[in-house]
Amino acid sequence: MPKKMLYWMGRYSVELVARIMLDMNILYHEELPPGPKLIAPNHPTTIDPFIITIVAPEQVHILITESAFKSPLLSKYLHGAGHVPVVVENGLAAFVQAKRLLEDGKTVAIFPEGALSPTDGIARPHTGVVRLALMTGAPIIPVGIALDKSRIKLMDTGITTADGTTEVARLYLGGPYFVTVGVPMRLSGSAGDRANAIAQTQRMMRHIIRLSRMSDYRIQGQELPKGAVETNMIGALSIPFEIPTQP
């Protein structure tokens, strides 16, 4: 089966299931630009990589942890649909593949935190999204996801991680799932400028945090107060981020 056909079959299936099982709500602050772009969401649950495909009208190539590819059936679908495995201790390979996709005019989604968000906020991000944007000129689309955390169900996947622990999935099979899609960020400067990459990553994460709070306030039927950002969620952003080896 052609990759595009497999992707769209999966995408429409996800949208159908999401619309039936979840209280889905997506708000766009601006129409998505044509051409290559980087979608950068926060990552509260394991289902986010599937749901994020609904955000864009075109095919989205998502960088997903390698553990998701360990299930034979799921791995066949993920590879066939054009998604990219991020192998532990070899993130450079996924970085290079994402760069090639962007240079080919494709849309790529990357979770800047590199793993599931902490239950009480946002994890320290990597600079890969910003470096890809600086290298390719592709805009970053910050995305903020919010949901009812009390409805998250933990499931033992049976998959052993690199440190020997068993990976636990966070499933979300019912309840509000609100997404706010921000205004595209167009960056300037050199991808090799560490200080600039860190500063731009800080700025991107503040946008994502604010968009997540906007989604949360919409769930509650309220508007986010002007200038409101939870300071405890951005406090760790001053910590230096990991920068992948240059390809």
Count every helix, treating DSSP H or I runs of 4 or more residues as helices. 7
Compute the gyration radius: what is it?
A: 17 Å
**Class from helix and strand fractions:** alpha/beta
Helix content: 25-40%
CATH topology-level name:
Glycerol-3-phosphate (1)-acyltransferase
Rounded to the nearest angstrom, the distance between the terminal CA atoms is 32 Å
Strand content: 15-25%
Looking across the biggest beta sheet, what order are the strands in?
1-9-6-2-5-3-4
Number of strands: 9
The average pLDDT score comes to 86
**CATH architectural category:** 3-Layer(aba) Sandwich
- Low-confidence runs of at least 5 consecutive residues: 229-247
Q: CATH superfamily name?
A: Glycerol-3-phosphate (1)-acyltransferase
Main beta sheet strand tally, sense and closure? 7 strands, mixed
- The CATH class: Alpha Beta
Characteristic terms for this protein:
alpha/beta, 247 residues, two-stranded antiparallel ribbon, 21% strand, seven-stranded mixed β-sheet, Glycerol-3-phosphate (1)-acyltransferase
Give an overview in words.
With 247 residues, this protein is an alpha/beta fold. It has one domain: Glycerol-3-phosphate (1)-acyltransferase (3-Layer(aba) Sandwich), CATH 3.40.1130. The chain has helices at 3-21, 48-51, 72-80, 91-103, 128-136, 194-219, 231-234, and strands spanning 22-28, 37-41, 60-65, 84-86, 107-109, 140-147, 153-160, 166-171, 175-181. A 7-stranded mixed β-sheet has the order 1-9-6-2-5-3-4. It has a two-stranded antiparallel ribbon with strand order 7-8. Strand 3 (60-65), helix 3 and strand 4 (84-86) form a beta-alpha-beta unit. Helix 4 (91-103) runs parallel beside helix 5 (128-136). The longest helix has 26 residues, at 194-219. The relative contact order is 0.19. Mean pLDDT is 86; it is low at 229-247.
